Amino acid sequence: MTISMYQASAPRFINILGNLSNILDKAQAHVEAKKIDPSVLPAYRLFPDMLPMSSQVQIACDAAKGVMARLAGIENPVFEDTEKTLPDLKARVARTIAFIQSVTPAQIDGTEDKDIVIKRGEKETHYKGMQFLLGHAVPNFYFHISTAYNILRHNGVEIGKRDYLGNP
User: What is the reported pTM?
Assistant: First the structure.
């Protein structure tokens, strides 16, 4: 059995984003139970030169929707980075899942050799579809999800590996 580009992307992103949504629910319950200022956790960083938790969630969402849009050859929806609270971040996750669910397997499968160009300022990085998905987008997605998880765990939110993995 071969795994398709769609199977390697959309269901995995949806699953982990759903787990993140559940983790954000636990974080919200923690904030309420401990009477923590609602702006604290989204602004928290593990180290001064790291991006805050809110940015970790935003970037993970952007990575997932970005790769789906690029592979499918459709417009990548722009989500402004305005989330300040855990419910705001949860809503962004939901919008991202909805977008990914709108992309069909037919739009993604067969994009292994598609040319993908990423611009960062003046620099262009060239990929083939599979290289972009598996070598860049997926690791980047998991990095930011893991960092958001670690920030919440560091701050006492009672989450564990089962929350992160969910039921794949």
Answer: 0.96
